[in-house]
Input
Amino acid sequence: MRWIVFLSLVALSECLVTIPLTKVKSMRESLREKDLLKGYLQRHPYSHAYKFLSREGVTFEPMRNYLDLYYFGTISIGTPPQEFKVMFDTGSADLWVPSINCSSPACVTHKAFDPRGSSTFQSTAYNFDLLYGSARVYALLGYDDVRIGDLVCKSQAFALSLESSKSLQFAAFDGILGLAYPSLAIRDTTPVFDSMWKQGLISENLFAFYLSSNEKNGSVVMFGGVDHSYYRGELRWVPVSRQGHWQVTVDSISMDGKVVACSDSCQAILDTGTSLVIGPANPILNILRNISAQAIRTGKYIISCEAIQSLPDIVFTINGVAYPVPASAYIRREQTGICYPNLYPSKRARRWVLGDVFLRLYFTVFNRANNTIGLAPAMA
Output
C-alpha cells in the first residue's frame, strides 16, 4: 500500500509547472499606517457581489476583500510578452489586467496592456462590468497568448479594464487570474486553467497552492501536478459540494471541544483571493466573544496580543477530518503593535470563506478531474 501511495505521488509530480508567488503587505495595513484606512472604508464600504448571469453585459464576481490580499505571481500577455503581477484567485474565473485605454487612477498606477504592441492580439466589441465587494472594473473582452511560466495558452480570453474603481489604486497587483469553475467566467469564454487542459499543456487536470506563513518568498502555485515536498502526511480528499466556487461542506466548527458554529454543517469556499476567514455574522460574533475580542469605534475588533499564547484553536471539521487553526493564525499582529482577529462577520454571508488564514496552514490541491479538494498540513 505504501508503494502505491508513493507511485501516485510520483505520477502527480511529473510535468509539474510551478509559479512562484510573492507575499506583500496587505492594503489594510498600508492604509492603517498612513492613517487613511477609516476614510477609505467610508468611501468604499464592504459588500457582497455574487455571480448573476441574466443581466446583459454585467458579470458579478464572488465576494472579494481587496484590503487583505497578500500573494501575487507574474504572467505575460501578448507577442512580444508584456508582464503583469496578478493574483491567482480560486474565488473567481476571469483574467483581467489594466489597459492603456484606461485613465482611472487605479490603471495609471499599474502596468497596463498595450494591444498595439502585440502581434497576436484579437479585439472584440464586447464590453462588460466586473463587480467586486468594494470595486468595479469596466472592461473590454480581448484574446491573446497568455504565458504562465513555460506554458502558453493560445488565443486566451481576457478582460482589458477601461475604467477601474479608485479602491484598486492601492493594490499591489495589476490584475487577477481566476481559477474557479467556468460557470463563473465571462459568458462564452474559457478560463485560463481550462485552456491549459484543453490545449494539452498540463498532464493532470489539477492545480495546487502552497502559501508560505513567513515573510520570506517560497509561496507557489503549481499546475498539472503536485510536489509532495510542500506538505506533511497524506492528502485528505474532500468532494466539491457545488461546482462554481471551490465549495465544500463543513461538518462543524469547534473550540475546546465545543461546537461554536455550523452545528448542522454549513458550506464554505476555499478562496486564495481572500486573506480572512469570513462567515455569517452571528457565528463569527460568537467566536469573537469566545476569544474576548473588543469592538472599537470603527466597528472593527481588537484583542490582547498576549492572548495569542493561551487561546484555543478554531477547529474546522471537513469530511470527518479536523483542521485546527491556532490563535497564531487567526490573530494578526500589525506593525502598530495592535492585534486584530483575522475573522470577519458578514450580515449577508450564507457561506463561509476560508481564505489565506486557513490555506497557509494546509497545502491545497484543486482537482478538476474528479471535483475534489486535497488538504494536508503545509510544511513550515
Confidence is low (pLDDT under 50) at residues 1-13, 30-38, 40-69. The radius of gyration is 20 Å. The chain is about 15% helix and 40% strand.
